[in-house]
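Lab meeting minutes (informal)
Scribe: AK
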Amino acid sequence: MAVKIQTIKDIKRYLLEELTGFYPETEISAFANIIRDRLHLTGQQLLAFPEKPLPGKQASEIVAICKELKTGKPIQYVLGETCFFNCTITLDASTLIPRPETEELVDLILKENRGYNGLIIDIGTGSGAIAIALAVNLPGSMVTATDISAEALKKAGENAALNNVNVQFIESDIFNSETDLFTPAGIIVSNPPYVRESEKKNMHQNVTGFEPNSALFVPDSEPLRYYSAILRFAEKMLEDNGRVYFEINEALWQEMNDLMHSMRYSDVRVREDINGKKRFITGIKNG
């Protein structure tokens, strides 16, 4: 007998019935939690009032969400938003879904720059997640964010307003950047495209089929092209003794280490993420 969504406890049962075979049970359970949050139904309510009736409008919304999830569309796009470092980030097809690893990158910057009140430049900002999280958590700083996509910058601007922070957004191509649009900064951060085209075959279709490929992939012949361009930009726009922070392809950490040293950065460090993958690299610009 098909499960009908009549009460809070029916949400997970319905999702399990409809999505088993499309997703593993652990992911379906995560969907149930996300959807309950979306409907402002807490876990405490589930425990205390499992038989609480759901309004028909909410039940219909869950059915519609489930239908989209069956296409493989990521739940963040289905709902049009995600949570990133306690900030609400709205999304559309022009913006990459921010990952938990990128939250670790923000956390690293915050831990190493407590009370920082200078300028930060976020290159390739997309939805604005990194820039906004830094602006929220370093309120004395000034944050500038840049992207080549006008559509992404529009969404990033909406997200800054949603989170009540002031971020300067600049449309700019890092390969042909007009440096006179920028003020030198003490921190430059970027999570640029770094997945090689040859690695695409190993990725899930709900990534390659829905997220903007231009924000993910680089040619195998030039896997560090964005990092090289950003470091050339940093030659002019990063203050002496300023710091760079990158999220990187774990398979290319040695090449990134060599690139940073070749451009005379000191204190170059490759950092692991929570899963033990070499996911970040940092360095200090020598004067």
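Next up, CB showed the second protein from the same session:
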Amino acid sequence: MSRPTSEEARDCASRHGLNPCPECGAPEEVARSYVWLNSGVMVQSVNLSKRMGFIESDILDPLYREIGKILATPIEERVADVARRHTLDLYRNLIQPEVRNMLRNQVLDVRFIGNFMAGTGQLNGNGKYEILEVRFQGDENDYTLTTISEPFSLPFAAGINVGCSEVITEKPHKATYREISPDLYEIKVYVSEHDHSLEGCLPVKEYRHRDGGVELERCPSCGCPREISRFKWLPERGVIVNERTGRRLKIADPCVHDLLYEELEKEFGETVPATVVEAHKRFAREGFFSGDEIGGEEDFRTQLALRGMGNLREMKISRRAALVRVDNAADYLMMVGLAQGFFEAVYNLESRVEWRISPQGDLDLEIRPL
């Protein structure tokens, strides 16, 4: 993936109507839609109990494959189902019942809401969507055919498409997808019963605010954190790039993977958390991430809070041990695995890790050499 300059990113955003901030480059819609709290948490401005955040998306599909390899069972279908159920919960709150009724009764064109969802997805870094065909007659032959280029995660994108169809039609759907050219995929969503017993939505845990003392320096023009100037929006591709690392980001609920791993644990048992930690550790040890990205404690605290991933309370690292505490931690198994991987890579040793997550989402972890 090419790394855009700040000027190129601003020009691109302007051409696609995102109205980037003249100082930090954040799209006006992002500044209007999200709020960064002093607890290391990012929330929707219209719903302060709904967490959002910037998640690393380059790692997602390789991560799902690695977890499946360790479990000896592919998990992509489970990923798509969690994405489906999570999307149901999200859009049932965003799209009013009256609007959904108008869509089902064809008072409103279903393409209208489809294009809205696609545009929102592109702003959030999902990839670029194009709706090719829609059959919506209210019977068992209905389907939607879309393409997506540069998807942030193919199974997750398919699950989102299924959830969007289900929230409008109130009928169960499935999806198939195929690659039609490099990094361009066709997704067909059609009426069909689910293969699993995972029915209904997947309720998102509401965030309850606790003051945390995290003060991010703000852009005087739009109010976003100044550090967001490192994130570059390429809306014609539906891509967000972290200029600091060259990797791709996506705006999403950062706790969605916690939900996914809870579902996997129900199916595969109590070994799942250790499996997820091991998968993340392997990526860190193999150099997907760099320990240099962490910087000092204050920089790491800022980067976590900027992404909405939590409030770093403590970080002590030496060859003898690493002790980390993060309040309001999201995707906490990822944090545990990456911390262990960095520790082992820096000191070139094997280690053991122990962690505890409180009911409030506060993470304590300790890493020691074997």
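CB comment: The first strand starts at residue 34 and ends at 36.
No objections, moving on.
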